[in-house]
Specification:
disordered N terminus; 11 helices; 7-stranded parallel β-sheet; binds zinc ion
Length: about 280
Amino acid sequence: MTLDAADTGPTADTGPGADPATGPVAGPPRVRARPELARLQAMIDASRRIVFFGGAGVSTESGIPDFRSADGLYTGGGPIPPEVILSRDFIEQRPREFFEFYRRHVLHPDARPNPAHLKLAELERAGRLDAIITQNIDGLHQAAGSANVIELHGSVHRNRCRECGREHPLEAVYKASGVPRCGCGGTVLPEVVLYGDPLDRDVLEAAAEALARADMLIIGGTSLVVYPAAGLVGHFGGERLAVINKTRLDGIGRLGGRPGGRALVIAKPIGAMLAGVQVRQPGDG
Ligand SMILES: [Zn+2]
């Protein structure tokens, strides 16, 4: 497989001066066609079992900053980095500080789906998209109406008392002060994957199966350097691969070596790109 961000593929020749219909005639400049969007559209129109694999960049367009960029907690001896705070050891040993950070930097209860979430839900309803695999924990794909969402890192919307097992909504964690408590007195823990946690085996299996069935894979808003993204996408054996990420496309080198097909690589925000896609029912002309 060849990865070439500059490649414009079969819909090339839409650049300035390349259109024979325009010719050298003077006049207002023709609006430049968008070969990237045209190629993405053609790939989507040819697919029935799209899988979308999304990372933090999908959520940042809804105003949710990547918590890895947040300031750590200052506790006298210097800042504690987010990767330490959001770990299983830390929530066990210093739960009050964990929840203080979690509420401030991880929970964003007012965030709403952006054009990327909405377009993906539309593609699923139209019978084009099979599954969304996400590294995000904010539940925005479901809020947009997507049904088959595989959440690799869990969800802030699932919270459970560690003593009695009762489930609690996001509000119970968000509105609590200090450590959220169940009516039974037990600590309410979010069912999210923390640093030091293994990923759920069933969830990983579902993701691998969806990728193995897919005829198109769209990777969006992730640099692909974070485990398990790079390994998981190896299960995809289809022809059509599109990678859409505003920055840091360095991780895509790991996708190389797969026979068949070329990757469409687009260095643009995922929401802006997907917003331009037309959703056509399979069978439409
Ligand atoms: Zn309880």
